[in-house]
Predict the structure.
Amino acid sequence: MSVLLESLVELIRRTSAELPDDVNAALVRSLETEKKGTIAESALKIIERNIELAKRKSQPICQDTGSVIFYVECPVGTDQITFEETAREAVKEATKKGFLRQNSVDSITGKNDGTNLGPGAPAMHFHQHRSSELAVRLVLKGGGCENVGAQYSLPAEKLHANRDVDGCRKVILDAVLQAQGKGCGPGILGICIGGDRATGYEFSKQQFLRLLDDRNPDPQLDALEQDIFKTANELGIGPMGFGGKTTLLGVKICAANRVPASYFVSISYMCWAYRRQGVVLNANSEIEKWLY
Amino acid sequence: MLQLTTPISEAAIRSLKVGDEVLISGVVFTGRDAVHKYLHEGGALPPGVSLQGGIIYHCGPVMMKQPDGTYQCTAAGPTTSIREEPYQGQIIHDFGVRAVIGKGGMGDRTAEACKDDGCVYLHAIGGAAQVLAECVKKVRNVYFAEEFGSPEAIWELEVADFPAVVTIDAHGHSLHREIMAASKAELEKRL
């Protein structure tokens, strides 16, 4: 096994079996917030036990090991073709080892060949940068939370949502309401205001690379993030939609330019099993440090 | 915590109400999108599988084949149930199902079938694949693995003390409907 292959298999293992520290801390805080003796508290206790077990046994936190999405920041001149081939090999290997479920289905024939490889699987995003560092981030996004993602086109008359920040607020809170129970809450929202249909969703997912407790450098977006977070947690939806105080663990919003005719708000939902991890690789492709 | 052991009687099901936390022991059969579509289209259960007084679990587990040919279940949380809404009521009725385990709740047609036929919807904790896999004591058998693929197959599981919450009971109550109505009202105050 090449060093790069080994490093990527380890990245997949750790992403699938261990939640990052910021997510763990947020879940611990939410357990303290919920009323004792409620089913919301029971649910969070099971979640906590599950996180501990998965880590100890090096097994998937959730059986839906999700869409495998790589974000690679690489120096100019990196051989992206070889990197992608190795990443595909790593996915296949991680599936054999049980870090990933046989989770990729041919959409037309319905066949699952058990490798997790196919058109678009895994998804690869490369970004060149001026630094000499090679950073690989990985998000495993389950289908339950992916299914409750939503894209609104403003104005949305039924929701009285116009083409302004208040309109964005209305559709985002509607998405929270509609997602209840289904996306394995408490959840995290990644949102893009603007863009076209494809980049809107793409940028909304990239928000999941941010730390839960960071703050948006744009004051208007920061205010909207704080407002949505506070309001959503007052709705009484709670973990798993059982009722309770913790509906969201975080809200992350970015904006992209749009054409005058379009005004999309794209909302991706991440479940509590927020599997994101990342590594910086050294010149020998060994893991130099973990990013989360 | 209430104990629920398969096969389950109608009386035991009718005694449950929304909000009850239960521990399930006995045999459960996994079945998700492909299985529900197949049964709804008139497909027969494979020989050896009976859902009479039994439990369907909306789950696509991670299974590792052992050298001796048996399987070990290494992750087994619930999948989102609402996708089976077009099929579930009919399947509860036709096959005598007493409980459906899943996540996210189901709609009015399933709630109606629960009331008419004596069935409940049990909400497991989504994403808790390890805690729930520990409750799987034995993988007894697998059906349709070739046709539907591993996550979509019918897995016959022996479980002990599998935790879940009754969110749709056999009396027409649904926690999902209640929380939706209450949270909608709260949201309207804040718009």
